[in-house]
Structure formats: structure tokens, C-alpha cells
Amino acid sequence: MPTSMVAVGDTLKTRRFEADSVQLFLYNAAIWNPHRIHYDLPYTRETEGHPQLLIDGPLQGDWLTQIVEEWLNGRGVLESFEYSNRLAAYLGDVLTGAGEVVECDDHGATLNLTLNNQNDKTTTVATARVRFQARA
Amino acid sequence: MSILTDEIRALIGTEVAPFEFEISRNDIRKYAVATGQRQRRYLDGDEAPLLFLFSAMMPVVPLNELLPDGRQPDSPLIPELPLKRIMAGGSEYRVHGRILPGQVLVCRQKLANLYEKQGSAGPLIFMVFENRFETRDGEPVVTEYLTRIAR
Predict the structure, then answer these.
(1) pLDDT in tens, B43-90
(2) Which residue of B has its CA nearest to A84?
């Protein structure tokens, strides 16, 4: 991806994320998150009122950084990243990460990113600023 | 009428004691697998993805100190507010350098701002926490602005 070929309106390759219970368990173990809503279904339903185990908000943020880094393909680095979870995402949801270049110059680009569920509802939005450079 | 009193606003700028967090290659590798990462440098643990730092913020406390919902007790930086239900509001990260295995990062936490807005279902209080991750030599690595919302 030569940086001269990046233009406003370019879209990133979409990626589908569908965490299963094993991935959800491993993620929460890796970040040391003992909140029951990610592994205890009876508690999650009966006490918290959710229909299913919840996909962590920061995991969704991480997924959006992944589609940026896959688009960069080693030609740049993240300078800043901002994300916000807008809607609960549940185990079994099929989430699609997408992004678009909204600003661009010789030095870098700004990308708007979304993670949408199978009903085309946005669960997470993000903005990334990247700086073009070869990775060390 | 403001629900944020002068007494509550006076807490802006409050800091807690910094803590250190050692970046381990094995922890990076586990995180990379668990997040479905595809970049080889992360899968090999040669560098940590940005949101790996979220794990740094999870306190390691004894089992008998966990709350009934499983969570660790809340940060002492969360002030006593008239609104009790706390929700995540998102994060903004400014990246100054790479997160590498073997580094010992120092995290300095501060209540950076408190402000209120009128939501569709009533008032909301926004709490902004600044988490500065630095090397032991004081070189900034990542600065996070984490927002939590009380309603």
C-alpha cells in the first residue's frame, strides 16, 4: 500500500468477528477480568437481565485496531485511537468491522471505523489516526 | 441546576499512587491468541497491541475481595456521586511509543475531568480518567483518557 495511493473515501477490507465461548473465556482470562457477565450465563440472565453472555467492549475496540493494522500492512503505526461502545454485543453475534479513510495527507490518515452486528446495528465506533512509516 | 457540587468538582485532579506493570512476552502471546490477532509480531510476543494495556488496569486482588458480580472493587478515583449506575463511555489512546516485552511500565492515574450533560432519560455525569503509561525513565509510552458515565 504505497501511501501516495491512499485517498479519502478508501475503504478498509472488512473482517468478520464471531467470538465463541472459548475465545470469550480466553480473552477474559488474558486480561484478568472476573466479571460474571462474560462467563456465567444464569447470572447474566437472571441478575443482569441480558439474553446472553456479553462480548467485552475493549475486545471490540481491539478488533477495530486489527483491521487498521491489517490495512496498514506494516506501512505505518497507530498514532491515536478512540473507541466507544454503543450497543451490547452478545455471544453468538456476528460482528463486522469496517473502516473508511476520512482524512489523508503525506504523513498519515484518519480512519472512521465501525463494528456492526448481524442486524446492521452498530455496537462500537472508533476513530484511528495513523502515521505512515516503515515499521522498525 | 447542576448536580455536580463544588465539593465534587474539587476532586478533579485527584491522583492515586502510581503502580508498575511488567510486560511479559508470554502474556502478549496469550492476549494475541485470545483476540484473534493475525499480526506475527504480536503472536510472537515481540510487541504488544495497544489495547493489551487494558489488562494492566485490572487489579489483582484476593478472591475474597471480589464483588458479588465477580468484578474487582472500583477504582478509588471514582467519586461519590448522586448518580449511582456507572457505564463504560469509551477510551482515547495517544500512542507515543511501542509496548515491548521486558518493559516495566509505570501507570499514573488521575481524575482528569468531571462534567454533566442532560441525557434523554435524565442527567448524566461524565468522569474522565487519565492513565499515563511511562517507562521507569519517564518516557511516555501511551496516554489513555478513559470515560465512564454515571446515570
Answers:
(1) 999 999 999 999 988 999 999 999 999 999 988 898 888 888 888 888
(2) B90
Q: Tell me the C-alpha distance between A19 and A4, whole Å.
A: 36
The C-alpha of A29 sits at a distance from chain B's nearest C-alpha, in angstroms, of 9
In a domain, B40, yes or no: yes
| Minimum Cα–Cα distance from A31: chain B residue | B55
Q: Which residues in chain B touch residue A13, judged by CB atoms under 8 angstroms apart?
A: none
Question: Given this model, what pLDDT does residue A1 score?
Answer: 56
Q: What chain B residue is nearest to A88 in terms of C-alpha separation?
A: B88
Determine whether the interchain pair A43/B69 forms a contact, defined as Cβ–Cβ distance below 8 Å: yes
Hey, are the CB atoms on B36 and A34 less than 8 Å from each other? no
What the block records as the C-alpha cell of A77 is 503505526
The CATH code for residues A9-19+55-132 is 3.10.129.10
pLDDT band at B22 (very low <50, low <70, confident <90, very high): very high
Beta-carbon count within 10 A of A29 CB: 15
Write down the pTM of the prediction: 0.94
8-state DSSP, A39: T
B95 and chain A in contact, CB less than 8 A:
yes
> Residues near A58 by Cβ (< 8 Å), separated by ≥ 6?
A31, B51, B54, B91
Q: How far is B70 from chain A (nearest CA, A)?
A: 5
Predicted-complex ipTM score: 0.95
Contact between B112 and B129 (Cβ < 8 Å): yes
Supply the CATH number for residue B55's domain. Answer: 3.10.129.10
Question: Considering the domain boundaries, does residue B1 fall inside one?
Answer: no
